[in-house]
């Protein structure tokens, strides 16, 4: 009964679950305006709200993806070599071995340059994206 009572108010008034003040507003609503049986259950309402999952953010498909780091660029190219040497390794073990090899790698300048270029392209794309968002 409590849930349907809250649901009628909350969802019809478009109160979002990921809003920071959501729990306080709902509890206030229940405590001030609800019937006696529901008011007695306000502890239950607080418990339920505290344990609610936050609404998943929708991702904008037009937003540029963040650039890869120098390590990730290197790992994506080196993963097949590591896998060829150790065909029975799991994915996590390959990543650990890649991390070890990256730490031992002396000349990282090639990968750091690629990462800087990718970051520069990303920043340009983000400027264009934000300009487009301001227009819309």
UniProtKB/TrEMBL annotation:
Q: What is one Pfam family matched by this protein?
A: HMG_box
Q: Which parts of this chain does the entry mark as a DNA-binding region?
A: 64-130
Keyword field: DNA-binding, Nucleus
Please give the name of this protein.
HMG box domain-containing protein
Q: Where is the HMG box domain?
A: 64-130
**Which lineage do the record's taxonomy fields give for this organism?**
Eukaryota, Metazoa, Ecdysozoa, Arthropoda, Hexapoda
Gene Ontology terms describing biological process: regulation of transcription by RNA polymerase II
Q: Whose protein is this, by species?
A: Henosepilachna vigintioctopunctata
What SUPFAM superfamilies does its record include?
Answer: HMG-box
Q: Does the keyword Metal-binding apply?
A: no
């Amino acid at each position: 009964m409590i849930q349907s009572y809250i649901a009628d108010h909350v969802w019809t008034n478009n109160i979002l679950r990921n809003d920071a003040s959501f729990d306080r507003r709902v509890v206030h609503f229940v405590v001030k305006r609800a019937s006696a049986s529901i008011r007695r259950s306000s502890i239950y309402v607080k418990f339920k709200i505290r344990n609610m999952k936050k609404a998943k953010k929708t991702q904008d498909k037009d937003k540029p993806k963040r650039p890869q780091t120098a390590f990730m660029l290197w790992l994506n190219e080196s993963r097949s070599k590591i896998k060829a040497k150790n065909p029975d390794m799991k994915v996590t073990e390959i990543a650990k071995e890649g991390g070890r090899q990256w730490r031992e790698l002396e000349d990282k300048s090639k990968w750091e340059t690629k990462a800087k270029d990718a970051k520069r392209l990303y920043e340009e794309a983000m400027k264009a994206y934000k300009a487009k968002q301001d227009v819309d």
